[in-house]
Amino acid sequence: MPRDYYEILGVQRGASRDDIQKAFRKLAREYHPDVNKSSDAHDRFQEINEAYQVLSDDKKRAAYDRFGHAGVSGAGAGPMPDFEDIFGDLFSMFTGGATSSRGGRNRPRQGADLRYDMTLSFEEAIFGLDTEIEITRHEACDACGGNGAAPGTAPKTCPECHGQGQVRYARQTFLGSVVNYSDCPRCQGRGSIVESPCTTCRGSGYERRKRKLTVHVPPGVDDGMRIRISGEGEPGENSGPRGNLYVFVNVEPHEYFQRREHDVILNVSLNVAQAALGDAISVPTVDGDEAVTVKAGTQTGATVRLRERGVPKLRRDGTVAGRGDQIVIFNVEVPTHLTPRQRELFQELGESLGTEIKPQKAGKGLLERVAGLFGGE
Known about the structure:
By secondary structure, the protein is an alpha+beta fold. The chain has 9 helices and 17 strands.
């Protein structure tokens, strides 16, 4: 079972955003894989990052407080914060806000993430599918091979920083003489310069192109969830890895079915004769029609539960652990237009039943009974 996000960050449920941020920064400094080399540091840091992504967002935090992990399923994942983002406040104290890591811009950096919005039908969201999508992203320029230099030429080592991407200088502070590093002004931190830029990509090394990808949508996804496809985002800098592609899911409403977590809800109308005498009917499910018995004397709000006809229960690792149910709610319809014969029959029935008014004992109303199906008493 997933750990409580507040427990992960070590804060109380009423903690302020500042308290949450402070707790995250403290734990991030301790468990960031660039600092902590233990075997579980990466997983621990991802757990800390996921908790922070949810609790630092007011809407996600409200959903988590109300529904727990089910309310933010798939919403906590996010790209790992950069080492410099976490320690930037410490570095800037010595550099006045300039880039302070000696790696500079010429160190490998992961590329930017991309977003794709996908619309699914109700059934596709329940059963999942493999579908092809088309995205537009930067790809290495064919003309220059991605180095930005015109064909027949190559980038040259920057003579200013000698390929380091940074220049070194010292200044006096209240702590004494402090050595600082800043991006090389000539190569902008890249470590190399292009004297003859490629005319195809204008020296950038990349072109925007369309690319087709196959996306596996697992069964049981819900509206608002996102699917991460690692390494399919924008290219990284200086041989860094590509970013990720995040597919955001939008589920179209169904004509008859409604979803409540892992259950599917279906409202069915009965006429007074079916409700009074009982009947054998066929109702639709996401798996096809299924026979249902209507008991004699069925009242509005009565329900029948069809086991394992609901939404697959998706685990965090992407596997399925069973399915929810379909709940059929009966509504007894009173006819508003009667034929002469129907009116005659109802009059005979009314005379036999009598007209005495019988106050009902206080108890649960229809709304309370229906609400009880979804976690109430």
